[in-house]
Design brief:
By secondary structure, the protein is an alpha/beta fold. It folds into 3 domains: 17-71 and 168-298, no CATH class; 80-161, no CATH class; 300-348. It contains 19 helices and 7 strands. The chain has helices at residues 2-28, 31-43, 45-51, 73-77, 80-89, 98-108, 110-117, 125-132, 136-155, 163-167, 186-190, 197-206, 211-244, 246-249, 260-267, 271-278, 300-312, 321-332, 338-348; strands spanning 61-64, 69-71, 168-175, 178-183, 192-195, 282-284, 290-292. A 5-stranded mixed beta sheet has the order 2-4-3-6-7, sandwiched between helices. The chain is globular, with a radius of gyration of 25 Å. 26% of the residues are buried.
Length: 350
């Protein structure tokens, strides 16, 4: 009995280890390779069957959008290289309407466009037209074009995508004083997959799948879970990062002290995972500047030195350490000792 327990435990640990290694491998993939993998999954006919509602219940695999996520339609649609790649990959006659549709989207405004034309709720042409100042016909045309362009963008092989759109994960937009991540690739707009266990079990037992198809369906479900894990992990990390540094993105102040370890604890991920998720990725700030995600992490000592520089800005070296200590407390809310101020000034040559 004891040997059986040990053997069962070992098998369980081996399975968990294989799962962890697959996740690690997926984390280490460049964004282009990851998007190619996600695209292959979506294009698989058997996976499409897993996504389709079954007669006896719901779909075996469900899509769930990330809260607060949007799609940077204007940036993507306005990119000539992307539009050209989309036209080569799909039937692109509709791209003749691109300038007019892009103008309509900009007239609607980012918030209205996200609400009415990117939502997965049933489309209401009259409501969209009234909210955006369009005719119902214009709203319907823009919706059809948007759906076609998003699908075409997702089908473009990552190797043909403009490099800035691969490097830049999202545009940071401001809606009513709130920050929103408008992703530059529609794969993130789609969100993550959720597995409907009972529906999957029914499909595997009574869905007419052969033994080989059933085994491949299980592999596809496992791959979908890993793809979702990376996408959801990145979304949680980016959302938390924007929340922590919202004053910076809203133009209300400098970057706050923040470490990858602290952010990892907040989102419930390993610090090494957070490091890999943000590596080599950027976002576009509301004022148009491209910002590296790693630059949004600010060690406390660098933050304090920057504030000391601000305090000394008008007075140069005339202020004593005690006066700098008092100024940091009153102006910045930073409470540190005079001795610490002296150490920071010595380190920074101030």
């Amino acid at each position: 009995m004891e040997n059986r327990k040990k053997q069962g435990l070992k098998l369980s640990q081996d399975a968990a280890l294989r799962h962890d290694l697959r996740l690690f491998s997926l984390l280490a993939r460049p964004e282009a390779d990851f998007l190619a993998l996600a695209g292959e999954l979506e294009a698989d006919p058997l996976f499409a069957r897993l996504l389709a509602p079954a007669p006896g219940g719901g779909a075996a695999v469900l899509r769930r959008r990330f809260p607060g996520a949007s799609y940077a339609f204007s940036a993507a649609c306005g990119d000539d290289a992307l539009a050209s790649a989309a036209e080569r990959c799909c039937a692109g006659e509709w791209l003749a309407d691109r300038p007019a549709m892009l103008q309509l989207a900009r007239r609607a405004g980012a918030e209205n466009f996200a609400r009415w034309f990117l939502s997965d709720s049933p489309f209401d042409p009259a409501g969209a037209a009234a909210a955006c100042g369009f005719t119902a016909k214009e709203a319907a045309r823009l919706k059809d074009f948007t759906d076609a362009f998003v699908l075409a963008h997702e089908r473009v092989p990552p190797a043909r995508l403009p490099q800035p759109l691969l490097r830049c994960a999202a545009r940071v937009e401001v809606f009513g004083g709130r920050l929103c991540a408008a992703y530059t690739h529609p794969a993130y707009l789609r969100g993550a997959y959720a597995i409907n266990g009972p529906a999957l079990a029914r499909l595997l037992k009574t869905g007419g799948l052969g033994k080989a198809e059933a085994a491949r369906a299980r592999k596809l479900v496992s791959a979908a879970q890993r793809v979702s894990w990376r996408k959801a992990g990145f979304h949680r990390t980016l959302a938390a990062l924007l929340e922590e540094q919202k004053d910076f993105f809203l133009g209300r102040g400098p970057l706050k002290p923040l470490t990858q370890r602290a952010l990892a604890a907040r989102v419930g991920l390993n610090p090494g995972t957070v490091s890999r998720l943000v590596s080599s990725r950027t976002v576009t700030a509301p004022w148009g500047e491209e910002v590296r995600l790693k630059d949004l992490f600010r060690p406390k000592n660098a933050f304090v030195i920057d504030r000391i520089r601000e305090v000394l800005g008008g007075a140069g070296r005339k202020l004593t350490d005690g006066e700098v200590t008092a100024a940091l407390k009153s102006a910045c809310g930073i409470k540190i000792s005079r001795r610490s101020v002296n150490l920071y000034r010595t380190k920074a040559g101030l």
